[in-house]
Amino acid sequence: MPSSVTPPELLLPAGDPVKLRYALAYGADAVYFGLAMASLRTPKVKPGQGPQFTPANLPQAISDCHAQGAKAYVTLNIFAANHDLKRIIPHLEQLEDLRPDALIISDPGIIRLAKRHAPYLPIHLSTQANTLNVSACAFWQDLGIERVILAREVPVREMAQIHDELPDLELECFVHGSLCVAYSGRCVISDYLTDNSKNSNKGMCGNSCRWEYENATLQVNETSRPDTVYTFEEDAHGSYMLNSKDLCLLRFLPELMDAGICSFKVEGRTKGIHYVATVGQVYRQAIDTLCAGRSVSTEQWDLWESALKQSANRGFTEGFLHGKPGSNGYTYETSKSRSIATFVAAATGLSDDQGRVQLEGRNPFSTTDALEWLTPKRDYPHADKPHRRHRRPARRAGAPQPPGLGDTTPHD
After folding, report:
1. Based on the domain organization, do 318 and 256 belong to the same domain?
2. 3-class SS at 231?
3. Which of 21, 23, 69, 209 could anchor a disulfide with 12, C-beta 3.0 to 4.6 Å?
4. Per 3-state DSSP, what percentage of the chain is helix, strand, and coil (rounded to 5)?
């Protein structure tokens, strides 16, 4: 790919201020985040019991992005009821003063309010709006929308068609992360199975589609096609018939760039800092390599994908990029995300003038484990550069390591 190509934006998630710092450190050109009351990702902690975005810390979050040369996109992508609108208006007025780089909105009613109460802020249409075609994109462009975040169901050939017919409209698509089996996540299974206590369109999805369902072997058929029989089976762990694999379009970035996609978005505001750092760094390096005009070997693609598997995932699929996914687009064995590596500690600072690092333990590790560093400045992973490893006995083998455990490897 020629070096003259305008690099697409790498857009990383931030579920709280801590994850925001990691997103910025590990390669984000832009970060998206928002308040729980107006966002489709509600924090798993109660107010005051853990880090989350609030009206009080939003100014600092936006300022941190701009200080790092990154853009800040604030999400207001719930489907609002009348009572929600009263809370959203003062939030919009605050955002107008804070000047984030864009608002991400799906509800036409909130778009209308944004134009009235935050008229100077660009609006990006959320993927929740289910935008699939040229005419729909043109409709939103006529209303002043600057960017459309395409539905995950749009194949790459149709992305290219939209760009060809509407070259002035920015197009964004998801390239990595969890997939919902409902159209662009517009689903009410969680509402139904939790007696409306987990409203998926208000940021509280219970992930009911990924629960274990125990039953005997079941056969069903459509009444209009009695000869067509579907069999659902379960093993000792249950049945996971609606459990999609995770989206991973790493190897298809060149196609997406050719199709005119200007922003590559990573899902995962509720996921941890290890996920944000790992995925961000891999996609950062891939984008930079492609935009520099350097060829990418099969070995390098494999290394990058192997690195992605070190963070939580349910297996990978290309989703709808080249058509409807088949049966291999689902994970039938378990609903849990898995990884080939364990996140054991986060570096919190230098412990002395010799470059030793303070670590905050996250998971147990033993004296025989090889520890692999993932640092913001590191060229990771690369085909001709082996991973740097550090072997040092833990203070208490097999136990979570306390903050302040010294390390002999200088911090990068």
Report:
1. yes
2. strand
3. 23
4. 30, 20, 50
Could you tell me if 36 and 169 lie in one domain? yes
Q: CA torsion angle for 198, 246, 266, 109 (degrees, to 10)?
A: -40
Specify whether 112 is located in the same domain as 90: yes
What are the helix (H) ranges across 125-272?
134-142, 156-165, 189-193, 253-258
Please compute Rg for the chain using Cα positions: 22
What is this structure's pTM? 0.80
At residue 212, what is the residue type?
Answer: E
Q: Is residue 156 part of a domain?
A: yes
Nearest to 377 by CA among 266, 281, 276, 301: 281
- Are 286 and 31 contacting, i.e. CB atoms less than 8 angstroms apart? no
- Same-domain check for residues 112 and 173: yes
309 and 261 in a common domain: yes
- Residue 315's pLDDT band (boundaries 50, 70, 90)? confident
* Boundaries of domain holding 149: 9-179+247-329
DSSP 267-321: --TTS-HHHHHHHHHHHHHHHHHHHTT----HHHHHHHHHHHTTS-BS-EE-TTT
* Number of structural domains found in the chain: 3
> What digits encode the pLDDT tens for the residues 60-83?
999 999 999 999 999 999 989 999
